[in-house]
Amino acid sequence: MENNAERFDPLHDDESALPSKVESKENRMKRLMGFRDFPKRTQEEKLALLGSEERVRALDAITTTTLPPSKKEMKKGAALEVAEQHLVSEEILRTYPLVYLGSGTDLEYVLALGGRNITLVDPILAIPEIKTEVIEKIKRFASDVEIKCDECVFEFDFGHGDERVTAQLVAKAYTQETGAYELPDKIGALVLYASQGPGGRITADSSIKERMVDGGIIIEDTTVTLIKDGQEELIELGS
Known about the structure:
With about 240 residues, the protein is of the alpha/beta class. Helices cover about 30% and strands about 25% of the residues.
């Protein structure tokens, strides 16, 4: 006869009664659904990691259109862990583009990551109101803003005094088709966050990875691919 007293009913029983070897089921489901936990940081800790009040303000203002709203906290946590683990050098971020495919108006994220040569790529940037929203965000965080058609040049303090930042607003989709956005030959950092293209979700394939400079990183949601000496290292942010 089957001993029903040993069985666990997930619909009615207290999950705390589960044996320790299956207590991670909830965490495993969260991971499979793309959720990660990040430690809560004080403002002082954020400042110590990011180096300037301006960069902390950009971090705190991060938003997302990806549901649920808790996803924006994952973005903030990811930016802080990238800084904490020194996953990409300041020199690479100064020298090479940081490209954000499917960016929406999410300028704050790339500023928190430390991008100096920023390219936001999203078809919605063709909408005048959306483009204006990005420009207004820049004016809230930066000084001496100069706007040249689809390029914004401004000063921003990443922790070493004001530096020149260029933000290109590209109103195109990323695909391999003619007329779509074409990636630069050399990329320092590439960001994908639930990024969508005409063919569906965008992922970092070989055509993207071959354009990454040595020491460059690809951030796909909360997974970082570090390109070093021709090798790829996967790093999961959060827990």
